[in-house]
Amino acid sequence: MNNYFTSTIFRKILAALSGLFLTFFLLGHLAGNLQLFISGVEGQTQFNKYALFMTTNPVVKLLSILTYASILLHVVLTLYLAFKSRQARPIGYAVSSGNSNSSWSSNNMAILGTFLLLFIIVHMRSFWYEMHFGEMPYQYLDDGTKIKDLYLITTSAFNNPLYTLFYILSMIALALHLKHGVGSAVQTIGLKLPNYEKPLKYIAESVALIIPATFASIPIYLYIKNL
Ligand code: HEM
């Protein structure tokens, strides 16, 4: 039993579960961020009230802690597994099998994942850090209360073409990472039954495309709107 918890398969299952949890986080995060498409005072008020709720509600706070823990767990486990598989096969295959688990894709997963980690650090510094610890501007509501204006911080960040480009490139990396990741996570936790293999692959690849493409549309929209 003790051996099981230190085994490669247990680590692979944990890496897969943390990855799937992060994919669900992304779906929720995307749904919230779609409010950035609502313009004017109405959009500003709605987004700022949403941001206040997301940073103060105890259940959401718990989910946030789970998200940070999942990011750390996922990074540590997947880098460890990539390192182990390299150690076991230092020369690499002369001819790729074309299999989705080939060393080619696992090397690329490590590179894409590292780039995404850099994206998350820059991203959280821009918005999450400002919201929690920065000197925020305020929006004054009709009833006289004031709330932190995260809408202003977020929308004005995409005045910068380089910052916008960085987001678009990051979403391309996210698409490639999810395309392989969601498929192989589903396989690791044993859902890859012969009859369901094709539909599951189809769902995994669609998710991989729809989430980052919709995310990317937000900075593109805000940049064009700010022109
Ligand atoms: C491209 C469009 C995106 C926009 C406009 C956006 C916007 C934001 C904003 C405004 C916050 C701060 C809100 C808060 O503190 O709760 C935030 C937090 C965060 N974002 Fe994003 N985001 C985007 C994409 C992403 C992506 C693709 C990822 C992951 C790969 C991501 C990961 C995170 C994380 C981990 C947090 C902290 C969440 C928490 O504290 O619970 N974001 N984002």
What does this structure look like?
The chain is mostly helical. The protein has a single domain, classed as 3 helical TM bundles of succinate and fumarate reductases (Up-down Bundle), CATH 1.20.1300. 77% of the residues lie in helices and 3% in strands. The protein is built from eight helices and two strands. It has helices at 2-5, 8-33, 40-56, 58-88, 103-133, 150-157, 161-188, 197-226, and strands at residues 138-140, 146-148. The chain has a two-stranded antiparallel sheet. Strand 1 and strand 2 (146-148) form a beta hairpin. Helix 4 (58-88) packs antiparallel against helix 5. The longest helix has 31 residues, at 58-88.
The CATH topology is: 3 helical TM bundles of succinate and fumarate reductases
* Radius of gyration over all CA atoms, rounded: 20 Å
CATH homologous group name: Fumarate reductase/succinate dehydrogenase, transmembrane subunit
Secondary structure tally, helices: 8
Give the uncertain stretches in residue-range form: 94-100
Sequence of secondary-structure elements: HHHHHEEHHH
β-strand amount:
under 5%
Query: What small molecules does the structure contain?
Result: protoporphyrin IX containing FE
Task: Give the spatial strand order of the biggest sheet.
Answer: 1-2
Q: How would you characterize the largest beta sheet?
A: 2 strands, antiparallel
Q: Which range best describes the helical content: under 10%, 10-25%, 25-40%, 40-55%, 55-70% or over 70%?
A: over 70%
In round numbers, the mean pLDDT is: 90
CATH class, anyone?
Answer: Mainly Alpha
How many domains is the backbone divided into? 1
- Shape descriptor reads elongated
